[in-house]
Design goal:
Layout lengths: L1 H32 L3 E2 L3 E4 L6 H8 L16 H12 L4 E6 L5 E10 L4 E8 L8 H16 L4 E7 L3 H9 L3 E12 L2 E11 H6 L6
Parallel strand pairs: 5-6
Antiparallel strand pairs: 1-2, 2-3, 3-4, 4-5, 6-8, 7-8
Helix pairs in contact: 2-3
Amino acid sequence: MRMRSSAKAAAKNYKEQSEGDKMKETYNEIIQINSVIPTTRMVLRKFTSADVEDVYEYASDQQTVRYLTWAGISDLEAARKVITDFYCSDGIYAIEIKENKKCIGCIDVRIHPEHEKASFGYVLNRNYWNHGYMSEALEAILRLCFEELELNRVEATHYVGNEGSGKVMEKCGMRQEGIALQEVKIKGVFQDVVHYGITKEQYYMTPNKNL
């Protein structure tokens, strides 16, 4: 009897794993189809080698990368390596201003197929803060997650002290869900982490989704 139960459990696990793999493939296909996402003032698109100087401009600025998990970069070669080793992956978008073709930052979406949800992270050149660019980019990512990928939930975090990031999330309809005290140790400092989230139901109840 136990052997039969074990066999059933193994079969169930295999089926769930297979379904999870299929879901992951489907999500990846949708991300690839949406490799270029236009917004009102910008285009979210894949990074190229032509973005080296723009990436260096924002990633070498310590105030811009202050709340990131990585320390930033110090030269153009490091910027080139970031593009080829990391930024080239699917789901990572350069934020380009249509008017002058300048890359002013990065936003990425990370799918968790087994939970039908996604998380994201972003960084924006400090010279372009407080102009609504990041809200516009995040709105496009939320639209991708809920209307194209048909996910159930999107979530993200920021550290206490970086309230500007929280305002971006709130502007896009996300809700603060709690604060975890000293949740992570980043650059030698224990950081309190603010958690935000939005469900599919909440997304479609949010007015003025197109910023």
